Amino acid sequence: MNGEDITAVDVVVVGVGTMGSMALWQLSQVPGLRVLGIEQFGPAHTYGSFSGESRLYRAAAKEGRIYIPALLESRRLWQELEAESGRRLLLPVGALSIGPEGHEDLASTLAAIREYDLPHRVLDAAELAATYPQFAVRPGDIGILDELGGGLRPELAVMSATERAVARGAEVRYHTEVLGLAEDGDGVTVSTSTGTIRARRVVVTAGSWTTRVLPELRSLIHVEAYALTWFMPRHLELFTPERFPVFMRDLDGVHAFGAPSLDGYSIKMCPHLMWPPLDHPSQVPATISPEQLAWAGEWAQRMIPDLVPDPVRWSVHHDSVSPDHVPVIDRVGAGHIVVATGMSGNGFKFAPVYGRVVAELATQGASALQHPMFTLAGHLDRAGVAA
Ligand SMILES: Cc1cc2nc3c(=O)[nH]c(=O)nc-3n(C[C@H](O)[C@H](O)[C@H](O)COP(=O)(O)OP(=O)(O)OC[C@H]3O[C@@H](n4cnc5c(N)ncnc54)[C@H](O)[C@@H]3O)c2cc1C
User: Fold this and answer.
1) In this protein, which residues make up the domain named FAD dependent oxidoreductase (predicted)?
2) 78 vs 89: CA distance, rounded Å
3) Which residues lie closer than 8 Å to 208 by C-beta, 6 or more apart?
4) Measured in angstroms, how far is the CA atom of residue 48 from the centroid of ligand 1?
5) Domain locations in the chain?
């Protein structure tokens, strides 16, 4: 294709990462719809918000009960994608939250569990130490095991959703950057680095790059850097997925999360490192300082004493973030463009269901799964800005 050609399709999906691959998968299930995904990098590349081996799935969201219906539907869709692709994407290892009894996150997790009657176990300090001897447990700690929780395989999930969409007739153009969107009364003209495309609807799932395509969202969306660290246990057999869940641990004001060993030599264990907010993923720090790594190692070992405190692997990633960490999922402009962004370090577990929401917004104009808090008007209202 050269710059003079204009391809015409029903829906263009800008960005085939987490949300984009799931949107494509959902859109490809609409009979007769011509769908095109455009991705600036290659398939399941390393630059997006999804890379890093694993993600936590929790049904019992500490973030609030508004998310639980979506999380349960998302789990069903994860299982559907597993069945369709023949791949294990959601490891059923459970999600364990540990902290002092009464900790705010534990209280909201328990409230969600009770309201939705979710399968779980609450362990007091003695039960916790006996069941999960991997963790250092203090008197007064409790553990909540979300039995529907588990570990997601993000790169495999993005690849699987995209492959299923392509098998149903969707097209994907890789190594093609969307440079601009021009909306008119009938649709959108999409300018890309390899030509122009005319679409009836456009779904923007560009993650941390969203404001380059939709600059009008600059007041809402910024980018944050997040680190992942892996440590080697002395007794690897205690940390296999058969024996060890995904977890979140709060200790003396430090929050950490992690996952069992998936590489056969280390576990993911990430005491939360922080950087100032960024405008663009190109500003993500290329390295983690020795001091930061030493701090992470100290906390990793304090929480899980079997770990050697020198990390064997680490990486820095990014995500798009909204002011109150609620995602932005809505139609924008004159209504031909739909966006899903501002996943705020929390979006992977929701990916298939948010893929469905944007697919429904693009094809039907509305989605029963779009919570009012996700709308632009809702965000602007909470930010105290007139819509
Ligand atoms: C380190 C880390 C740990 C996390 N842990 C968890 C967890 O345990 N559980 C959980 O639920 N969530 C977690 N999250 C959050 C979750 O991974 C993200 O919210 C989610 O991946 C965001 O998806 P996205 O589709 O918005 O962005 P991405 O997956 O980055 O997709 C955006 C895509 O758009 C493409 N793109 C952008 N602009 C253009 C353009 N102009 N033209 C063409 N292509 C374009 C990009 O290349 C990219 O492929 C974590 C995030 C990070 C970074």
Assistant:
1) 10-361
2) 7
3) 49, 223, 280, 281, 318, 319, 320
4) 5
5) 6-50+155-219+323-382, 90-150+222-321
Q: Tell which atom from ligand 1 comes closest to the C-alpha of 319.
A: 53
Q: How far, in Å, from the CA of 346 to the mean position of ligand 1?
A: 10
Contact 121, 144 (CB under 8 A): yes
Structure tokens at 209: 């790059």
The fold adopted by the segment(s) 90-150+222-321 is D-Amino Acid Oxidase; Chain A, domain 2 (3.30.9)
The CATH T-level fold of domain 6-50+155-219+323-382 is FAD/NAD(P)-binding domain (3.50.50)
Judge if 6-50+155-219+323-382 and 90-150+222-321 fold alike in CATH terms: no
What residue ranges line ligand 1, CB within 6 angstroms?
14-20, 38-41, 47-50, 52, 55-56, 177-178, 205-207, 209, 212-213, 226, 228, 317-320, 341, 343, 345-349
Q: Divide the 387 residues of the chain into consecutive groups of 10 and give the mean pLDDT of each group.
A: 68 98 98 98 97 97 89 98 98 98 94 95 98 97 98 98 98 98 97 97 98 96 98 98 98 97 98 95 95 98 98 98 97 96 98 98 96 95 74
- Per-residue pLDDT tens digits for 337-375: 999 999 999 999 999 999 999 999 999 999 999 999 999
What stretches of 167-252 adopt beta strand conformation (E)?
171-173, 178-183, 188-192, 195-204, 222-231, 246-251
> Which ligand 1 atom lies nearest to the CA of residue 246?
8
Closest Cα to atom 19 of ligand 1: 347
**Distance from C-alpha of 143 to C-alpha of 53, rounded to nearest angstrom:** 25
